[in-house]
Specification:
- Residues 8-24 have a biased composition (Low complexity).
- GO terms for molecular function: RNA binding.
- It is found in: Nucleus, Nucleolus.
- Residues 1-30 are annotated as: Disordered.
- By secondary structure, this protein is of the alpha+beta class.
- Among the domains are: 65-113, OB fold (Dihydrolipoamide Acetyltransferase, E2P) (Beta Barrel), CATH 2.40.50.100; 125-259, Nucleic acid-binding proteins (OB fold (Dihydrolipoamide Acetyltransferase, E2P)).
- 18% of the residues lie in helices and 33% in strands.
- The protein is built from three helices and 16 strands.
- The strands form four sheets. A five-stranded mixed beta barrel has the order 8-9-10-12-11. A four-stranded mixed sheet has the order 1-6-7-3, with no helix packed on it.
Length: 264
């Protein structure tokens, strides 16, 4: 039975309403607050425990140095990233570096980070459509041989690649009108696009676009750098000698052609 106090008048009722809570009520409130805090702590701890338990079991600690062939973990609970490969249901290292574990959504990915600023050889692979920078090393009647030193996607190449510009790929138009010796000279710096992987020795390149071609050439008389006059002619600023080249369209800092800038 619950005892309900009776009050003789309204003043007694108001004083009872304004009176502070009893000790039993304060204890009940403290119990409720402590229960809420404990519930939040338990839920957070449980979530953290689930995340920790979801991590794959690695044979090596994160940050440790591993070598090619080292078995890192099972491929069932983890994915392989850069510097790894999968064999027999396990993830192995394919390079020497530091082991790294990255959370990708609900899954984990292991990678091997190379020391310093080294890049993986796969990032240096050229493909069709890449714009490359090269140096003309030899000119013959039907084609030009180029040493590729850089690409727009990969940047400077650690290993030099060989390419060739065939007569029909020098510029758009009639092939019969093109003269290789009037388009390139040994030592010219050219901007080309890869149109084919070619054979096992070199890539096939083209300078058929207006933005492609010779971007730097030296005068055959005074060895000064020449400036382009048109798409097929360059002039030496020192001796004023003119030479034929397949020139790339000059670009200013805003990416506009030189002719468009002069019209403005």
């Amino acid at each position: 039975l619950v005892h309900v106090p009776r009050y003789s008048n309204s003043s007694s009722l108001q004083s009872a309403a304004l009176s502070p809570p009893r000790a039993s009520d304060q204890q009940q409130q403290q119990v409720e607050h402590s229960f809420i805090h404990s519930s939040v702590f338990v839920s957070v701890h449980t979530h953290h425990t689930q995340i920790m338990s979801a991590q794959p079991n690695l044979r090596y600690a994160v940050g440790s140095t591993i070598a090619p062939g080292d078995r890192i973990c099972s491929a069932r609970k983890c994915g392989g990233g850069d510097g790894t490969y999968v064999r027999g249901g396990n993830i192995h290292a394919s390079a020497v570096g530091k082991l790294n574990l990255v959370a990708s959504g609900d899954a984990f990915v292991v990678t091997v980070v190379l020391d310093g600023e080294k890049q993986y050889p796969s990032s240096q692979v050229l493909s069709v459509g890449h714009v490359v920078l090269g140096r003309v090393v030899r000119v013959i009647t039907q084609q030009v041989f180029v040493e590729i030193v850089s690409a727009d996607v990969t940047g400077p190449l650690k290993e030099r690649h060989s390419g060739s510009i065939r007569k029909e790929d020098v510029r758009a138009g009639a092939t019969e009108e093109i003269e290789i010796y009037a388009s390139f000279r040994p030592g010219d710096i050219v901007l080309c696009r890869i149109i084919s992987l070619g054979d096992s020795r070199r890539y096939f390149l083209t300078t058929g676009e207006a933005e492609l071609g010779v971007i730097r050439a030296t005068c055959s008389s005074c060895r000064e750098n020449m400036a382009p006059l048109s798409w097929k002619e360059m002039e030496c600023p020192s001796c004023k000698q003119k030479e034929l080249r397949k020139c790339a369209k000059p670009q200013d800092l805003q990416g506009n052609s030189k002719a468009e800038s002069e019209e403005r």
